[in-house]
Specification:
It is built from 3 helices and 13 strands. The chain is an alpha+beta fold and 195 residues long. The chain has a 13-stranded mixed beta sheet with strand order 7-8-9-10-11-1-2-3-4-5-6-12-13.
Length: 195
């Protein structure tokens, strides 16, 4: 009986310590046309957030997958631009949205194997157009429900990629996915401020 309780206690502890699907934080290296950027990524299953600093300018991208809304925050100006995940502005700031857009436009996804990227087991997939042109190669983690690495084959310079490192469990909070009080929100559709 004592062994039974020990086993049950161990199982309970293991169950409680397991990361909820898709909840993590990581460092993203994003290379666009040969220029390297580093983001902090925070993911919570159906929403994610990128934080970056470019030339002294802080920025945050919040993507809400359920609604398709994207907010690009400029904390120093207390401004946010509201757009949709399929807008050019959004896809330029978010490689995952760019991939999803191509998939929604009729891209054909082919599973080509499994590989370990930065210690994480991934499904390797390729995305093609209907005319069989290779658009992307991704390494998708089922554990984290997010791509760990992506390479775009559409950039003529051949230097567009994304890779996550330093992945750690993270407990999300709603404040990470909302616009802070006092921000002016500009809707890209109307370019008029919202409050």
């Amino acid at each position: 009986m004592k062994t039974y309780y020990s086993i049950m206690t161990a199982l309970l502890i293991c169950t409680l310590s397991v990361n909820v699907l898709g909840q993590f934080q990581a460092t993203m290296k994003y290379t666009l046309s040969g220029k390297e950027k580093h983001f902090k990524v925070f993911n919570d299953e159906n929403r994610y957030r990128y934080e970056f600093n470019e030339d002294g300018q802080e920025g945050v991208v919040i993507v809400l997958n359920k609604t398709g809304e994207v907010y690009i925050l400029m904390p120093q100006q207390k401004m946010a631009m509201k757009t949709i995940s399929t807008s050019i502005m959004s896809m330029a700031n978010d490689p995952v949205s760019a991939y999803d857009y191509q998939l929604q436009q009729g891209g054909i996804e082919k599973e080509v194997g499994r590989e370990v990227i930065n210690g994480i087991d991934c499904v390797k997939k390729e995305l093609y157009t209907e005319s069989n042109q290779l658009l992307y190669t991704i390494w998708y983690s089922e554990k984290y429900a997010f791509p760990i690495k992506m390479v775009s084959h559409m950039d003529v310079t051949g230097n567009t990629s994304m890779e996550l490192t330093d992945i750690k469990d993270w407990t999300p909070d709603d404040a990470s996915f909302s616009i802070p009080e006092g921000y002016t929100i500009m809707d890209q559709k109307t370019m008029m401020p919202e409050h």
